[in-house]
Amino acid sequence: MPAFDWASYFKGIGAPAAPLYEVSAPEYLRTLNKLLVNEDLSTWKLYLRWQLLKAAAPSLGNAWRKTNFDFTQSLTGAKAQPPAWRRCTQTVDQYLGEALGQVYVAEVFPPENKARAQKMVKDIESAMGRDIDAATWMQPATKRVAHLKLAAVMDKIGYPDKWIDYDSLRISRESYAGNVERATAFELKRQLAFTGKPLDRTQWVMTPPTVDAYEDPQANTINFPAGILQPVFFDSSEDDVINYGAEGAVVGHELTHDFDDQGRKFDEKGNLRDWWTAEDAKEYDKRGACIAKEYTGAAPGVADVQQNGKLTQGEDTADNGGIYLALAALTADLQRQGKTLADTDAHGRTNLQRFFLAYANSWCTQVRPEAMRTQILTNPHSVPELRVNNVVSNMPEFKNAFSCKANQPMVHAEQCRVW
């Protein structure tokens, strides 16, 4: 990309010198270089001015916020902006997330909840180890490295061990836009300071209040903020059956990402390395293709677009593997307590039925058709309905739990599974 003045750019943002740069998407930069050469300067100025103002719009006052909301409305279908309290909370979480996180954790995530979540994660990792051993399609050489990778996974639960120090960031009542600008510069400077230093695997990408989770293949970590360790995912007042069905499936999902169609390309140290035998890689791709095919087709509630199973294959693989691992971990956990999946509660529901109900309830959601359409076209996650129905329809355990018959809608004739 010679048409861009990289030296001036790096100097302008204060980036330290680096001996090399890793280019992960060379074709993108080649194409961008052609645009820099072929488009006239006035067009670039207009485009960059628009990008800057759109990014700044939420902090420039109500008129700007309204215009920005009107622009995105067609993509989301939202009828009104979120209330001011929610916008303010989201902004604090975005720019001062770990400062907010300390207060949040003290309020809603006591040490005993963290200890219980840690036990669940370890149970699910043990289940993954047994699943690797039981895989008839993997050869010993591949299994050996898979176990090395599993053993090297770092579990991060709730919040960081060391909080970000915001003392050098000035927040004032003079200008909201100024606060946002300084907070943005603060985070850029903090990130650039990692350049050239050893990888710090303890750093978090998400803030503690975030209701989400993630796997980082290059750091080989799985990460569960305190926000997703709350009801309906994780409830300290509920038993393990409910928590393994909801949050346990999330934990299994993120762990499976370490071994999905993309995660499997990284080794135990987070290096991009092919550690699979040719035969095992072929067997993996065959199972992955089954999932991609199963998720390709009509999407619930949206008529004019189709779900692309190749786009969502990694997340679909993680969904299907995650619930299997959670169920295997729960089975072992109940056995240690002298209980079984067949035991019933006061309403006559078996533990196995309660497990699946907890999983389904964790996906209850409302999405407007416009937002659903945008998700189907761009998001690597399948729509929520498929993340429940396709997953459990692949499981003989679900069929048995609810006495489903062959050829019924919730029983797939070809049941796809990688993990």
Major beta sheet, strand line-up: 1-3-2
Total count of strands: 5
Tell me the fraction of residues in β-strands, as a range.
5-15%
How helical, in percent, are the residues? Answer: 40-55%
Instruction: Report the radius of gyration as a whole number of Å.
Output: 24 Å
Mean of the pLDDT scores?
96
What would you say the CATH architecture of one domain is?
3-Layer(aba) Sandwich
Largest sheet: 3 strands, mixed
CATH topology (fold) name of one domain? Collagenase (Catalytic Domain)
Shape: globular
* End-to-end CA span: 41 Å
Q: pLDDT under 50 segments (min length 5)?
A: none
Q: Strand pairing plus helix content: what structural class? A: mainly alpha
CATH superfamily of one domain: Collagenase (Catalytic Domain)
Determine the number of helices (DSSP H or I, runs of at least 4 residues). 16
In N-to-C order, the SSE pattern is: HHHHHHHHEHEEHHEEHHHHH
- The CATH C-level name of one domain is Alpha Beta
